[in-house]
Amino acid sequence: MTHRSLVVASLVLPAALMATIGPARLVAQTSPLASRIVATDTSAYRQLTAVHAGAGNMAFAGLLNRGAVGPHFNFLHRGEIPAGSGIGHHFHNTVEEMFVILNGEAQFTVNGRTALLEGPVAVVCRTGESHAILNTGTETVQWMNFQVGSIAGVSDAFDLGDDRVGAAVDRVPTFMSAQLDRSLIRPARGRGPDAAAPPAATPVMSRRLFAPTVFRSAWAYVDHVLVAPGASTPDAPHESVGEAYYVLAGSGTVTVGAETAPVQRWNAVPVSPGETSRITNTGTEPLELLVVGVARDMETKAAVMRGPAPR
Questions:
Q1: Cα 40 vs. chain centroid, distance in angstroms?
Q2: What would the mean pLDDT of 90-108 be, rounded to a whole number?
Q3: CB of 47 within 8 A of CB of 61?
Q4: How far is 2 from 155, CA to CA, in rounded Å?
Q5: Is residue 119 within 8 Å of residue 102, measured between CB atoms?
């Protein structure tokens, strides 16, 4: 998983959500690797009602907190949204989010336009774009939300008081989404910003779901990765880009620096700028990962998007 480096006080959030973000911490530099890997524990979920004035109730927990993947990373939330429930229509003007459902179906709203999508699927909600989600299916939806800021240490929210129940549904989505479909993944041509690198020698498959230009914040990319049984990704130097891995299926180990620890389905792993990482599949089925890259700062992300200076 290789790549080259990507060259104020918090505003008010709902109290229940702000509590899960917490202060910025240099988790990667101070904590043993095994303690940084977080399992999805449904027994630790908190029950909330009318999230952002949404319908019904939901349960969730914070897996990765602010600073876990660099200064601009705010959180990874993981939870469940029962049938008939959702997160109400709201804005963030300083941060971007990505809602992911791993099963079932849900109505996603971005900028007042709603479409029904089947999981597993990811939907990007950029800064200044209103968004919501409503589970209109019959099964409880397994849900995730990543949040990244344009200003380090700042987050905000503005509710619209709209649960989106009964909203008109477009036949074709008018917003950016990506299916987490294994059949669309191809042999890896490098990871991170250096997606044009030669194919890796190991059987690693990767698909770029969202490129750096999609995001207005320090968010760098989102990749869907498969590692074959017995294979490892190349050592990845994270010079200026941190990564968050969420294990969708399979089991293996993650190596960060000199430490190695086991990972399995529904584990979250943070890797900070300045560290190196490697993933190894020690199981008998493909190790499937959702990878979120976050630049150390806006300047380094912008430098890579502009490309190398002419000689």
A1: 14
A2: 98
A3: no
A4: 30
A5: yes
Torsion, Cα of 300, 301, 305, 308 (10° steps)? 20
Domains and CATH numbers, the chain: 15-179 (2.60.120.10), 182-305 (2.60.120.10)
Distance CA 7, CA 194 (A): 12
Q: Categorize the per-residue pLDDT at 3 as very low, low, confident or very high, splitting at 50, 70 and 90.
A: very low
- The string of pLDDT tens digits covering residues 260-278 is 999 999 999 999 999 999 9
pLDDT (tens digit, 9 = 90+) per residue, 181-213?
A: 999 998 765 555 555 554 444 599 999 999 999
* Residue 239 Cα distances to 144, 197, 260, angstroms: 27, 17, 20
Residue 138, phi-psi category: left (phi > 0), alpha (psi -120 to 50), beta (remainder) = alpha
Who's near 30: CB < 8 A, 6+ residues apart? none
Q: Report residue 28: phi and psi, to 5°.
A: -60, -35
Tokens linked to 308: 């190398």
Q: How many helices (H) and strands (E) in the chain?
A: 4, 24
pTM equals: 0.86
Pairing of strands 113-118, 169-170: parallel
Compute the residue count for the chain.
311
